[in-house]
Structures are given as structure tokens and as C-alpha cells.
Amino acid sequence: MRHLLKVSIVSVAVVALLALAIPATLNAQTAEPAPKMADGHPDLSGVWWTGGDVGGRGYNTSRGAAPGGGRGAAPPPTFTGLYNQAAKDASKNLSDKDDPTLRCTPTAFGTLNVSMFDVGAVAQIVATPKFVVLLTETYHSYKAIPTDGRPHREDLPPSYRGDSVGHWEGDTFVVDTRNFTDDTWMSAEGRVSPHSDQLHIVERYRRVDKNTLEIDATITDPKMLTASWTVPTQRLVLAPFDQLLPLLCSGVETAPLMDAADKLKKN
To answer: What is the pLDDT of residues 171-185, one digit of tens each?
Structure first.
């Protein structure tokens, strides 16, 4: 009897383990591989988002920061935790009235820790062997990034979104962006922050499979930060539509927001 009981217990345990393992195996088998371009590199093309409109149905913030460290591990430094004194002083003087996005001015680094989102939550990538084009839903913004590893141009004036060049490292597309103006904000960890003209962003794009895009980024700003900030890995999914619709901004619709922010600042 005891022998039969032991066999039954073992059988139940095996079945339970198989029940846990089978879904994972099926998921691994059913995940379609990332499509390839003519040159053999992964095709990053698609409309990408976090799984839904911000705060709306399907939105999933867990697609962002990957869990870091085990129990007792020190948490990674936050972006604001790396502020030097100049950044601390600058952030104290900022208010909603100073928000350049109310005047339809792009940010240097996007909301939700994804550069191509700018202040939105959806972006489109159009990839070719020679250029990767990032299209942003807000402010008619785009970046055409060469893929051949060319250096930054020295004849370009600083700009809101900086100058970007790219190259492939295996299946990872690396984007190097610098040459920013210092009169816009950047967004990190859901908070808008100041930056200097020495802001430097390096991003790494990986299409894990057909429906998943991972982005890592490192932000350096020697005039504002005491060390480089490593952005938590962001995981995006293909949206259920294949074309980005622009979110227009003329400044007229934001006038009431600016007036409200001005009143709060005076109070």
C-alpha cells in the first residue's frame, strides 16, 4: 500500500511538472522568429507600443523595466539619484509653465524610457539595409538613421532630438545620438528633467521575435549627471495596426494648460 502511495505521489509530481513545462515549451515553439531584411539583418519594421494606450485598455507597464537583482541586491541608481548640483539647481527652478511640450517642442529622450516615443506611447520603425527610420506620433518627429557606421556630421547645428548614427553589432542595431540643444527637457522614469548640450544617448534595438522588440539605452551627461544612467530594458510589442497616425500639435490646444500652469507657478 505504501509503495502504491509513493508511486501515486511521484506520478502526481511528474504530471505537475509536465503541466508547468508544456506551456513554456509550446510558447517557445509557437513564437515566430524575427523577420529578416535582404541583407540578413533583423527587420525592425513595425508599429511598436507597450501593449495599449497609456492608462487605457491593454496598457501594461510591466513590459518595461526587467526585474533586477535578487533578494538583498542593491537597487540600480535612479536617474535623479545621479543628478549633480547643477542638475539639482536646474530642476528646482522648473515648473509646468516651462514645459516645452506645451509649445509643441520635442523632448530629447522620450516618455516611458523609449526615445522614439517622444511624449507619446506609439512609434513606427521603417527599416531598410541603408537606413532605419523612426517615426514618432507626436510633433511630426522622425529620425532617419544611417546603418553603415558613418561618423556624426560636424556641420550640423544642435537640435532638439540630436544627431543619430547607427551600426549593426550582430543582430543588435546600435544608435548613437548626440549634438543636442540644452533648452528642452528629457523624460526619465516618468519624470521630466533638465539636460545639457553634452547629453549623449546610446540605444540598442533587438527584435527578439516577430512580436517583441527590446531596447536598452545608456544616458551620459557630464554637465548634469555624476555617472552614466543605464535605462531599464524596455520590451515593446507589435501593435494591432500597421500604420502610425500623427498626433498634431499647434500650440492652440495647449494654451489653457499653459495658463493653468502659470497660475500654479504664481501661487
So the answer is: 999 999 999 999 888
For residues 194 and 87, give the distance between their C-alpha atoms in angstroms, rounded to a whole number. Answer: 7
Distances from the Cα of 171 to the Cαs of 42, 48, 222, in angstroms?
A: 6, 18, 30
- What φ, ψ does residue 89 adopt, rounded to 5°? -65, -40
Count Cα atoms within 13 angstroms, Cβ side, for 103: 9
Q: Is residue 138 domain-resident?
A: yes
Which residues, 6 or more positions from 186, have their beta carbon under 8 angstroms from its beta carbon? 107, 108, 109, 192, 193, 194, 195, 199, 219
> Using one digit for the tens of pLDDT, what is the confidence trace for 17-26?
333 443 443 3
Compute how many other C-beta atoms are within 10 angstroms of the C-beta atom of residue 158. Answer: 14
Name the domain count of the chain. Answer: 1
Could you tell me which residues come within 8 angstroms of residue 213 by beta carbon, excluding any fewer than 6 positions away? 44, 46, 48, 205, 206, 207, 235, 236, 237, 238
Q: CA-to-CA distance for 251 and 258, rounded, in angstroms?
A: 10
Q: Give this prediction's pTM.
A: 0.80
R_g of the chain, CA atoms, integer Å: 22
- Domain encompassing residue 98: 46-66+79-266
Q: Which residues contact 8 (CB under 8 A, 6 or more apart)?
A: none
